Amino acid sequence: MSHKLKIFLVILITLTIATGVYSNKVNKKSETVTNISTPTLESIQKTEITTPIFFPNLKQGKLSKEDIILNSNLSNKEDILKDIISQLLKKLEDKNILKKENFKYEVYIKNRTLYLDLDSKILSSAKTPQEELLLIYSFVNSLLTPGGADNVVLLINGSTAEKVNFINISKSYKLNSNI
Q: Where is the GerMN domain (predicted)?
């Protein structure tokens, strides 16, 4: 065997041994389990979803606005809208615009039109046409601000009505931020 061939074989054997040693070290490192801390349920913060509600400010003759936190367990649009109405009714009761009692209401969406069926006692609590208009738009603006619908049709006790007290409510209402 020639001298050059012996040197080549020694280099080849050395390279093979070095590759085997390196591969063995990599395999041992991959067998070591590194603990990864996973977040606990307490550390995961739920994102609060807020939306504004509008309520009459009778002294100023316009609507006031306040952000509310929606119930995070709600998934469909109708339940979210019912939560908005529920919180709005509570705010109207707290502001002494409505008497504290259980009002019946339903809400549903069809073809980007929101149908709001209210108890007649809600609108009949208004003492002037301006109060009634502010009360109507408190519902309209609160329900249309989050999006998903273009207009609101009011129903009273399950059917269309021309008016409860002062204002013709047989039309559909659009968002009005100037009121």
A: 73-161
Q: pLDDT band at residue 38, thresholds of 50, 70 and 90?
A: low
Q: Alpha carbon of 165 to those of 29, 104, 148: distances in Å?
A: 80, 18, 30
What's the half-sphere exposure (Cβ side, CA atoms, 13 Å) at 108? 4
How many domains, the chain?
A: 1
Q: pLDDT higher for 1 or 88?
A: 88
pTM exceeding 0.85: no
Query: Who's near 143: CB < 8 A, 6+ residues apart?
Result: 81, 84, 85, 107, 114, 116, 149, 152
Give the domain extent around 169. 50-173
Nearest-5° angle of CA 162, CA 168, CA 169? 70
23 found inside a domain: no
Distance CA 135, CA 68 (A): 18
The first and second tokens of residue 36, run together, are 């990864």
Contact 179, 62 (CB under 8 A): yes
Structural domain contains residue 73 = yes
pLDDT of residue 111: 87
In-domain check, residue 16: no
First vs last C-alpha separation in the chain: 103
Alpha helices of the chain — where are they, by DSSP H? Answer: 3-31, 77-94, 120-124, 129-144
